[in-house]
Amino acid sequence: MFCFPKSRINENGGKNWRPISLLNIDAKIASKVIAERMKHLSVTRTEAMWIGSLQNCVNEPLGIKCEACVKFLGIYVTYDVQMLVEKNLKQRLKKIRNTINLSRELSINGKVNIIKTLLFPQMIYPSAVLCTPYEVIKEFNSLRPC
Fold it and tell me: Domain of 136?
């Protein structure tokens, strides 16, 4: 965006300047939509995480709480690899193990259906997004329905 003076007489003050944007109409619409959504941002429920060289920054822009671990689309994101594996993979393995133990009364077809439809996708999604350690894969393969 560039600002040009409305007249050469008085160039002091913001009202004496005319903004001209060189963006195309798509960018103008997108920026207006983003600005409108930012008005309704729930600061109390929103978490953010500094990335790159700013990861140790303590500032809270717009009053948004900055955390070391943030949940985004069902995946916890953090710089701590142990916490990443624990929150995304090992906690899911515990839930899967508990569900398998609850399904003792089912027939073999029922157990297979539970594993294929409910349990297997719980590990596929985070494994597709994250680099899964070998010990987690080994532990998942060792799970057996009773």
Answer: 79-141
